[in-house]
Write a structure and sequence with these properties.
- With about 375 residues, the protein is of the alpha+beta class.
- The protein has 2 domains: about 250 residues, no CATH class; about 120 residues, Immunoglobulin-like (Sandwich).
- Helix content is about 55%, strand content about 15%.
- The chain contains 10 helices and 8 strands.
- The chain has an 8-stranded mixed β-sheet with strand order 1-3-6-5-4-7-8-2, covered by helices on one side.
- A hairpin with an 8-residue loop joins strand 5 and strand 6.
- About 5% of the residues have low confidence.
């Protein structure tokens, strides 16, 4: 996948900072009512993006689900720390009153927040394009009421309308810094997107739960509360429609089914190696995480080779699986492997786990082939 969709999405999110211009053409009363429903809509979209997109994707692609959920918790705590110490908390209405220095503080906090948005968007695109699109929509829905509120704060702090728009947009461009950081670090740290994805989930849960929900609780008029609920459900349905679209697209891609030869092959090596993930025909992300257990004789110096092929038999990537314990034994030893590969040209491929054979003697050769489906 090229990086163009990432930067286009970051630019679209940055443009949300210009929504403050609506203050120049609409009445305060009208805007206040619209913001109420935008916040409700964004709340539903953020929650749905976590539970319908991010967490399912995380459970499919991670090799250690326990650690991933710990990172979700870390994401929540980290978001709380940023809000506390960098004054991330934003205004989502037009009645915020601050002293003039706070206008500058809002810009600084907004810059840090937007940098985080860039990290969120880049991370999710690296995992899956559909997930990146869903995250971009969720971020924009959250940004619009936030940016209108921030614009109101800047005006109240003494900024002219033109300067408020300009500096708000400059602050929004820091999202590119976050996106660039993820792309650069990804080259240095294998599996970075899988480490950041749970943090993304924690961040969205914190924003929706602690930043947006309290705003909705301020409404006490029954009619408005009903509309809040309706718009929140609409946000959830929007994210769900993206899930349905993704599933419809998946149906158009042929999924390799375990053939008789594949099943016989797995059976013949079953006493030597057990594969926990991925299963035959399973969709894999980037990187491909492989987990399982193998007898000590499958390893040499605690590793064995792993190769990923496309549907034409061309090698896409190669790596090594590493034993998670003492390998010089006849018992089964758990292993983990990670294979990083850009999106292949073919929708399917084969994962090959080879017995390490330093002797080179053919009688000691053995391998397991797992048909997989790419994102």
């Amino acid at each position: 996948m090229t990086n163009l969709p990432i930067f286009l999405s970051v630019f679209l999110v940055s443009l949300a900072s210009l929504t403050g211009v609506f203050l120049l053409s609409f009445s305060t009363r009208f805007l206040q009512k619209v913001l109420l429903y935008l916040v409700s809509f964004a709340t539903g979209a953020l929650f749905a993006n976590v539970f319908l997109h991010i967490l399912p994707e995380m459970t499919e692609t991670t090799g250690d689900i326990h650690t991933s959920f710990i990172l979700v918790l870390v994401g929540i705590v980290l978001s709380f720390a940023i809000e506390k110490f960098i004054h991330w908390h934003h205004c989502h209405n037009l009645e915020c009153h601050h002293a003039e220095p706070v206008g500058t503080m809002v810009l600084i906090g907004d810059g840090v927040h937007n940098m985080t948005d860039g990290i969120l968007i880049a991370t999710t695109y690296l995992v899956d394009v559909q997930l990146g699109i869903a995250t971009t929509i969720a971020v924009i829905l959250h940004e619009i009421p936030q940016e209108i509120g921030d614009f109101a704060v800047l005006l109240h702090s003494g900024f002219s309308r033109s300067k408020a728009l300009l500096w708000n947009f400059v602050s929004a461009l820091t999202a590119f810094i976050g996106a660039f950081a993820v792309l650069l670090l990804r080259e240095q740290i294998g599996g970075l997107d899988q480490m950041l994805l749970p943090l993304v989930a924690g961040n969205f849960l914190y924003i929706a739960g602690s930043d947006l929900i309290p705003e909705l609780h301020k409404e006490s008029v029954t009619k408005n509360m009903v509309f809040q609920l309706i718009t929140m459900i609409a946000g959830i349905l929007l994210m769900y429609s993206l899930v349905l679209a993704e599933h419809a697209e998946d149906k158009n891609v042929h999924t390799p089914e375990p053939t008789t030869s594949t099943q016989e092959h797995l059976s013949s090596t079953h006493d030597l190696i057990h594969i926990s993930a991925p299963q035959p025909g399973e969709r894999v992300g980037n990187p491909v995480i492989i987990t399982g257990e193998a007898r000590g004789m499958w390893f040499f110096e605690a590793v064995f080779p792993v190769v990923l092929l496309d549907a034409n038999g061309n090698e896409l990537a190669a790596s090594y699986a590493t034993a998670n314990g003492e390998w010089m034994t006849e018992d089964f030893v758990s292993f983990t492997a990670s294979v990083s590969v850009e999106k292949p040209e073919t929708p399917t491929g084969t994962l090959v786990l080879k017995r390490d054979n330093p002797s080179g003697l053919p009688e000691y050769d053995a391998e397991v082939r797992i048909p997989v489906r790419f994102e």
